[in-house]
Design a protein that fits this description.
Order of helices and strands: EEEEEEEEEE
CATH class: Mainly Beta
Largest sheet: 6 strands, antiparallel
Structural class: mainly beta
Number of domains: 1
Number of helices: 0
Distance between the termini: 9 Å
Radius of gyration: 15 Å
Shape: globular
Length: 139
């Protein structure tokens, strides 16, 4: 019996906490050896509103070079998947929160694209939590 989640989970930093003021991408995470991915987007203090916001997209790739927006079948509960948006940070309640994004697709690499509208200045950090490893270490 496993006594620790460490054997069942993998972790990675996709974006070290930094103040974001423009559109950008996180680094990618390799999910080849895992069957599940939850991306945690840590948003700091910001007066998000309908004019000053961040759209969060999950993008995936087979080669870690050419990324495309995930489709609705590749994510769990996207907000505006017609435009590739998994989560909108556009209300006061979106600040000082952790926003989980769930990837369900089958490509090897995944990253987060954050697209700024208006004037945004927010501390942002992004962490990957990989689950369901294809091989567990032997005890």
């Amino acid at each position: 019996m496993l006594k620790s989640l460490m054997a069942k989970l993998g972790f990675g930093s996709m974006l070290a906490p930094v103040v974001v003021t423009a559109t950008g991408n996180s680094s990618s995470v390799d999910v080849k050896d895992y069957g599940a991915l939850c991306v945690l987007v840590h948003a700091g203090a910001m007066a998000f509103d309908g004019s000053n916001l961040l759209d969060l997209k999950l993008q995936h790739s087979d080669d870690d070079s050419t990324f495309t927006d995930c489709a609705a079948d590749d994510v769990f509960e996207g907000e505006d998947m017609a435009n590739g948006i998994v989560k909108k940070l556009d209300a006061a309640g979106d600040a000082d929160k952790v926003h989980p994004l769930f990837y369900l697709g089958n490509k090897q690499y995944v990253r987060v694209r954050y697209e700024e509208t208006g004037t945004v200045s927010v501390a942002l950090g992004i962490t990957a939590v990989k689950g369901h490893p294809k091989a567990l270490p032997q005890n």
